[in-house]
Amino acid sequence: MKQIFVFFIFVCSFCNFALALDTNALQKRLKELTSVDFKVVSNKPASDASLLIVQSPSGERLIFLASSDGSYIVPLNGGLPLSEAKSALRASVEGVSVYNKDLKDSNAMKVLQKYTNYTLKIPAATKTTKTTYMVLDTMCPYCLQEVNKLDSYLKDSNVEVLMVAFLGAKSQKRTAGYYEELQKVTSRDDKIKLLKKVFTKEYDPKTGNDKITKEITESTIAAGIEGVPYMIFRK
C-alpha cells in the first residue's frame, strides 16, 4: 500500500460487525447460491472493524476492511449478496464497483472520441440512439464471442468498435492490418465483413498501420482499460 498515494479516504465503522450471524441460515443461503455445501467453521463478531475506501491518483477507488488501530487491512474485491437486504457494507462495496466502472467508461469514451477516425461504426438495422461500444483484440476468444453476436446487437443498437493489441506480436500484426483495411471500407456490409474477417484464424495481413495500433493500445491502457472485451452500453 505504500506505493499508492491516497488523496481521498473514507472510513466507516459498522456496528453490525459486532453481531454474530445465524450460522445455519448462512450455510443454507450459500448452498442456494452456489450449490456447494459450505460449512461455517467460525462465526466471530468483530467490533473493531472499519470499512476503508481509498482513491488513487488515477481516480480509481479501492475498498478494504481495516482494524480500528490501522495495523491490519484486508482488500475486498467484491461481495456475494445473500439476500435482497441493502446493508451499509453492501452499499459501500457495490458503490465502489459502480464508481470504478463509470470512471473507466468515461475514460474509454474519451479514447473512442479521440480516435474516432479509427473507430469502426456500424449503424443498427433500424434507426436508434442506442449504441454498443466495444474494445476488442482479434486474438481474444471472448472478443470473438461478442463478434459472433454482432448481428444480434445490430438489431436494435448501433455498434462502435475500437481494436487494440493486448495479446502479443500476432495481435499487433493483425490489428495493424485491420486498421489499414478499415480506411478502405465505407458501406455497412463491408464494415461487418471486415470485423468478422479479422477474427478468423486465417487472417494474416502482410502490411498494416503499426504506428496507430501502438498509439491506440497505449492510450487505452492509460485510460485504465487493461482487459478485453470491454463493453459499454448507452441508450
Can you put this structure into words, describing what you see?
With 235 residues, this protein is of the alpha+beta class. The protein folds into 2 domains: 58 residues, Nuclear Transport Factor 2, Chain: A (Roll), CATH 3.10.450.520; 125 residues, Glutaredoxin. Helix content is 38%, strand content 18%. The protein has 7 helices and 8 strands, in the order E-H-E-E-E-H-E-E-H-H-E-H-H-H-E. The strands form 2 sheets. It has a 4-stranded antiparallel sheet with strand order 1-2-3-4, with helices on one face. Strands 5-7-6-8 form a 4-stranded mixed sheet, sandwiched between helices. The protein is elongated, with a radius of gyration of 23 Å. The N terminus is likely disordered.
- Name of the CATH architecture of the largest domain: 3-Layer(aba) Sandwich
**Largest beta sheet: strand ordering:** 1-2-3-4
Structural class: alpha+beta
Number of domains: 2
Rg: 23 Å
**Strand and helix order:** EHEEEHEEHHEHHHE
Reported for the largest beta sheet, the result is: 4 strands, antiparallel
Q: Flag low-confidence runs.
A: 1-19
- Form type: elongated
Q: Span between N and C termini?
A: 38 Å
- DSSP strand count: 8
CATH superfamily of the largest domain: Glutaredoxin
Mean pLDDT: 88
What's a concise summary of this model?
This protein has 235 residues and is α+β, with helices and mostly antiparallel strands.
Features:
4-stranded mixed β-sheet; Nuclear Transport Factor 2, Chain: A; 2 domains; disordered N terminus; Glutaredoxin; 4-stranded antiparallel β-sheet; 235 residues
